[in-house]
Amino acid sequence: MTIIECQDLTKEYLGGETPVKAVDHVSLRFERGEFAAITGPSGSGKSTLLHTLSSLENPTSGTVFYEDKPLSGYNDNQLSILRRRRFGFVFQAYNLVNELTGYENIMLPVMLDRKTPDEKYIEKLIAMLGIEDRLEHLPSALSGGQQQRIAIARALANKPSVLFADEPTGNLDGKSGREVLSLLKYAATEIGVTLILVTHDLHVAEQADRVITIEDGKVVSDSKAAAK
Ligand SMILES: Nc1ncnc2c1ncn2[C@@H]1O[C@H](COP(=O)(O)OP(=O)(O)OP(=O)(O)O)[C@@H](O)[C@H]1O
Ligand SMILES: [Mg+2]
Q: Which residues on neighbouring strands pair with residue 37, listed in sequence order?
């Protein structure tokens, strides 16, 4: 079953000397629960594709559908509710709040949504990510890998349907990057969240069920389409 889809998605940046088509007529369909990697060279439009798919940026043309509903029909408030409740985000920078402990950072999205936390679920997340003993620490007392694991737990705290990750291991060294990636994959699979992960690292991409390669804003290969 398709969870998120884009049709003819295009994002053009004007303003510079020549306009840049960062995303150029991309059509993709993501199934519920799949783990897809988007890869390609620097500047090929990976981050822009992720931002337009996840409604962080408006496309220039084309449409994104979430559960078959076009996001063009959502107003800004509806989009921010969709992002808060249905989408999780993990970026290269961990973006934790420095004044809050690990646990408080994880709970932030649940609190912002004024929901009663599902403590059993949060406990399970924390155990899966192996951060039980880092919860009382401030981010400054955590390693990069630990901070990213907290950020992953935060992104999953609201039980999103889709987790968007942009170079989540980009700031980590090889070993802790591999650790974080395998925990991310494990947690996403256990929870059943759809994982759409951007990376320029082929070792990271090959962990995915599906690898989509983009160049100059266009899809040049898609292992899923190839398998059909
Ligand atoms: N806000 C912006 N304004 C103007 N041009 C932009 C903007 N954001 C991205 N671009 C341009 O769009 C193209 C795609 O950029 P994007 O950041 O999506 O690439 P990327 O594949 O994520 O690269 P990297 O691997 O280096 O992160 C590039 O040519 C970039 O310069
Ligand atoms: Mg990028």
A: 197, 211
Contact 26, 9 (CB under 8 A): yes
Residue 9 CA, ligand 1 centroid: distance in Å: 15
The pTM for the full model equals 0.96
Distance 155 CA to ligand 1 centre (A): 24
Res. 6 pLDDT band, cuts 50 70 90: very high
Domain count, the chain: 1
Closest CA to 164 of 97, 82, 42, 61: 82
For residue 47 and ligand 1, the question of a CB distance below 6 A is answered with yes
* Among protein residues, the one whose CA lies closest to atom 24 of ligand 1: 42
Nearest residue CA, atom 5 of ligand 1?
13
Test site for ligand 1: of 12, 21, 38, 46, most ligand atoms within 8 A of the Cβ: 46
Residues 196-211: pLDDT tens digits? 999 999 999 999 999 9
Nearest to 94 by CA among 164, 148, 139: 148
pLDDT at 123: 96
Domain of 123, CATH number, reads 3.40.50.300
Domain with 174 in it:
2-227
The predicted-structure confidence for 109-121, as pLDDT tens digits, reads as follows 999 888 888 999 9
